Amino acid sequence: MNSDQRIYLDHAATTPLDPRVLEAMLPYLASAWGNPSSIYYEGREARKALEAARRDIAAVLGAKPNDIVLTSGGSESDNAAIRGVAYAAQRRGRHIITSAIEHHAVLHAVEQLTQEGFEATYLPVDGEGFVSPEGLRAALRPETTLVSIMYANNEVGTIEPIAELARAVKEYDPRIVFHTDAVQAAGSLDINVDNLGVDMLSLAAHKIYGPKGVGALYVRPRTPFAGQMLGGSQERNRRAGTENVAGAVGLAKALTVAYEELDTRNAHLRDLRDHLWRELPRRLPGVRLTGPSDPERRLPNSFSCCLEGLEGEAVLIQMDLNGIAASSGSACTTGSLEVSHVLTAMGIDEAAARGSLRLTLGRDNTRDDIDTVLERLPGLVEKLRRLAPSRPVTA
Ligand SMILES: Cc1ncc(COP(=O)(O)O)c(C=O)c1O
Predict the structure, then answer these.
(1) pLDDT in tens, 98-131
(2) Which atom of ligand 1 is nearest to the CA of 105?
């Protein structure tokens, strides 16, 4: 099968590079390759491009350019936020609150801190993946320094009530830093940091048709923050290392285009997602939809379900052979046989969670793509169920 005929439905893992983003980046790879810290002409040209990119990124966030720290992507932004605040504020307290369904970039950073004597509370979620503001209020303590709750979940698309959660924290103690991982939310939802009331926000370019290996962390002025990458004084001493100028230009262009086209993109994605949501359970028995049932509280491009009696991996392999790229849980856990921590936190039992399937749509997908999936998926699922008939399927 040639790659043009394939149907790519894993945009939560990564997205193709927008040609307009590539075009904006090319000069900074090919000709204007100076080091932005150099004082001569070549350095100044690179610096100009870097600072223009920072201004554009800040504009989308409703922030000041100096509040943007450029990073190597979502994981680094999350790590920098969690560790940066935990260490800088540890004289005041060593208690961190996060949720049970965060990306591992947050969970593993918090876990490591607990091995160093920090305390962590992992807020539970309900059956649709929502963190409760009341639950957060009850978990706050005088020694809490940081709360990190994701804006939208990468596996089931749940949009957390970030403004309400941040407000609850600030009412308790305005010194507590509120961080949100907006890696999946960016390009679909409002990420204005004042509307959300957050102190820190993580972004990654490759989820919004930008390049891989570049991201940003918004840091509100006066947030206690200890840089985690040590060396030179780049990024106002918050992240050492020669800046990725072309990457920053790419992130800025991808974000700007995403927010210019937000409404049309979202309307298109919602239309495709709702079609899939309505049709798949009608055409295939034993489909349990996962995540929010209210389409308004779910990412516009996100569809997820569990297929009874099957292993998600087996379904993915069959889909791949049939020209469809999809995911079972997050890409980062694919390859390990661990059951998704997100689905288990939502109360889905291990057997059902093993049959999870995630389809995340993109702006280039068409109705025809979805109809092709609706035609092919039931047949291949039935075939797999015939081959492994040990687990009964309830309609
Ligand atoms: C919610 C969330 N946070 C963080 C990350 C990590 O981002 P990156 O791959 O850019 O390091 C991802 C990537 O899948 C994600 O979905």
Answers:
(1) 999 999 999 999 999 999 999 999 999 999 999 9
(2) 4
**For atom 15 of ligand 1, which residue has the closest CA?**
183
**How much distance in Å is there from the Cα of 256 to the middle of ligand 1?**
20
List, in order, residues 6 or more apart from 156 with CB less than 8 Å away.
Answer: 128, 129, 290, 291, 292, 298, 302, 304, 342, 343, 346, 358
For the segment 330-389, what is each residue's pLDDT rounded down to a tens digit?
444 455 568 999 999 999 999 999 999 999 999 999 999 999 999 999 999 999 999 876
Q: Which residues line ligand 1 (CB under 6 A)?
A: 73-75, 78, 103, 105, 150, 154, 181, 183-184, 204, 206, 215, 330
Query: Please, what are the averages of pLDDT over each run of 10 residues along the chain (395 residues)?
Result: 85 98 97 96 97 98 98 98 98 98 98 98 98 98 98 98 98 98 98 98 98 98 97 97 98 98 98 97 95 97 96 95 88 64 96 96 98 96 84 54
Distance 202 CA to ligand 1 centre (A): 9
Architecture of domain 3-15+262-387: Alpha-Beta Complex (3.90)
For the chain, which residues make up each domain, given as ranges?
A: 3-15+262-387, 19-260
- Rg of the chain taking only CA atoms, in angstroms: 22
**CB contact at 8 A, 12 and 154:** yes
Give the span between the Cα atoms of 295 and 21, in whole angstroms.
30
Q: Catalogue the active-site residues.
A: 332
Q: Is the pTM value of this prediction over 0.85?
A: yes
Residue 338 pLDDT: 81
Q: Do domains 3-15+262-387 and 19-260 have the same CATH topology?
A: no
As given in the structure block, the two tokens for residue 11 are 């945009």
- Which CATH code fits 19-260? 3.40.640.10
By C-alpha distance, which of 279, 232, 245 is closest to 377? 279
Answer yes or no: are the C-beta atoms of 284 and 309 closer than 8 Å.
no
**Sheet containing strand 302-307, strands side by side:** 287-289, 302-307, 356-360
Query: For ligand 1, atom 8, which residue shows the shortest CA distance?
Result: 74
Nearest CA to 317 out of 294, 335, 344, 338 is that of 335
How many angstroms separate the first and last alpha carbons of the chain? 34
CB 337 within 8 A of CB 368: no
